[in-house]
Amino acid sequence: xxxxxxxxxxxxxxxxxxxxxxxxxxxxxxxxxxxxxxxxxxxxxxxxxxxxxxxxxxxxxxxxxxxxxxxxxxxxxxxxxxxxxxxxxxxxxxxxxxxxxxxxxxxxxxxxxxxxxxxxxxxxxxxxxxxxxxxxxxxxxxxxxxxxxxxxxxxxxxxxxxxxxxxxxxxxxxxxxxxxxxxxxxxx
Length: 188
Hints:
One of its GO terms (molecular function) is zinc ion binding. The protein has 188 residues and is α+β, with helices and mostly antiparallel strands.
């Protein structure tokens, strides 16, 4: 690698090359000077990363520290499968290995995270001036293993006292952040 992959500076005795520990590309010191923890790749101490990777690593660390427990603890929703009119009260949570979305009620579903194609968070309370909104549900689309069929599920926060709306809203906010991270990592 004779030149920096960001600014095209030529490497020589004075301008040394450095590797981003996340993407592995070669950069000069100016373009690869951030030191950020990278626990998912088993780097315990902060390591050198390019600016783009450092930003993503910081978002991931924040997500793991704040949102992951919320997703794994779960929340209660009314779940509607496909175009059905009937909904079922289910607890939705992320599995311990973080690879499945587990739904438990009278029925049981396990949706592999990698099979999820779209997540749309449903909100209410939007005002034209950009006022506060809150999450009230989501629509999830995923591929059924072994076929090309796309299935849709609608999750709605419950209206009664047995469903904690605040917990459901927190879970939906965490799911929204998880989805953004998932889409960003798929784009890399």
